[in-house]
Specification:
GO terms for molecular function: DNA binding; DNA-binding transcription factor activity. Keywords: DNA-binding, Transcription, Transcription regulation. Belongs to the LysR transcriptional regulatory family. The protein is of the alpha/beta class. The chain has three domains: 3-86, Arc Repressor Mutant, subunit A; 91-161 and 267-288, Periplasmic binding protein-like II (D-Maltodextrin-Binding Protein, domain 2, 3-Layer(aba) Sandwich), CATH 3.40.190; 165-263, Periplasmic binding protein-like II (D-Maltodextrin-Binding Protein, domain 2), CATH 3.40.190.10. Helices cover 40% and strands 22% of the residues. It has helices at residues 3-15, 18-25, 29-43, 59-86, 106-116, 129-137, 200-212, 226-234, 279-288, and strands at 48-50, 55-57, 91-97, 120-126, 143-146, 156-163, 165-170, 190-194, 218-223, 240-243, 254-258, 266-272. The strands form four sheets. It has a five-stranded mixed sheet, with helices on both faces. Strands 10-7-11 form a three-stranded antiparallel sheet.
């Protein structure tokens, strides 16, 4: 017994006529008759009462018809489901990130991906850069998002977007009323920055901007968490230069002022293993980098 034979049975049960059933199945009548006979032999019961004038379902045939419809429907659902899974449109993605990426457009990009592929489950985990690379290499993570070029040996780096640095000041700072700020005007300020081992690209870009303007910044404190930087600036301990997207959805008592002659050089980067066999990963990559 196979699905094709059950399909023959279902069509004959619906038509109750060997000729019409064979025509509907696009086969000749003898193969249909043999298939039904073999099915009856396999089950050890008569499924149809046959006379010269009519074909009727037996009680066993009526029961088999109910079960057959269910099985064929289930197989169609399974086939459809497997096709979706095989294309990577269903499954699971394990995504890592450093905290600073959540203050970029990354959450919106991930939301867009989830809306396009609702059957792909997303599992998020926040980790330091080094841990993210380890998790990707050992296969416990599919993709990771960072704000720093890490140049890993066995991983791919895909730039998703870049943005400029923006000045972050306390509300009552003497420069807080300006529409744009020149880096040179910040020469005598105390700076609150990311620690270099947490955000080397942001830290190095900050130093380069100051150096290009002819001074070495006075760094009052280096923090490992974005919220620590913002709170210290809010409290008046200094100012900071951070990616421009930090200003979005922020309700702290801070002023975010663009820099004069800004340069788009702070990246949002996706890390992944090229050999990763999870087909959902490629949907993610194509969606957020398009």
């Amino acid at each position: 017994m196979d699905l094709r034979t059950l399909n023959y049975f279902q069509v004959l049960a619906e038509e109750l006529h060997f000729g019409r059933a064979a025509e509907r199945l696009n086969i000749s009548q003898p193969p249909l008759s043999r298939a039904i006979k073999q099915l009856e032999d396999d089950f050890g019961v008569l499924l149809f009462e046959r006379t010269k004038r009519k074909v009727l379902l037996t009680s066993a045939g009526e029961e088999l018809l109910v079960q057959t419809k269910q099985m064929i429907s289930q197989m169609a659902s399974i086939k459809k489901r497997l096709k979706i899974v095989g294309k990577g449109e269903s499954g699971n993605l394990r995504i890592g990130y450093v905290g600073a990426t959540m203050h970029s457009d990354l959450p919106n990009l991930l939301k867009l991906f989830h809306e396009q592929y609702p059957e792909i489950d997303l599992n998020f985990e926040e980790q330091p850069n080094i841990n993210l690379m380890q998790s990707l290499n050992n296969g416990t993570m599919d993709a990771a998002f960072v704000r720093t070029w890490l140049n890993p040996k066995n991983l791919e780096e895909k730039i998703i977007m870049t943005e400029s640095l923006i000045a972050v000041l306390p509300l009552k700072h003497e420069l807080s009323h300006q529409k744009k700020i020149k880096i040179k005007d910040l020469e005598n300020e105390n700076f609150i920055s990311f620690a270099r081992d947490c955000g080397p690209t942001i830290f190095d870009s900050f130093l380069e901007l100051c150096s290009t303007s002819g001074f070495v910044p006075k760094i009052f404190h280096q923090a490992t968490q974005l919220n620590s930087i913002l709170r210290l600036v809010e409290s008046g301990f200094g100012i900071s230069l951070l990616p421009a997207s930090i200003a979005k959805n922020n309700n702290l008592n801070l002023k975010f002022i663009p820099l004069d002659n800004k340069i788009e050089n702070i990246p949002l980067i996706m890390l992944y293993r090229k050999e990763n066999a999870n087909p959902s990963l490629w949907h993610l990559l194509n969606t957020i980098s398009s």
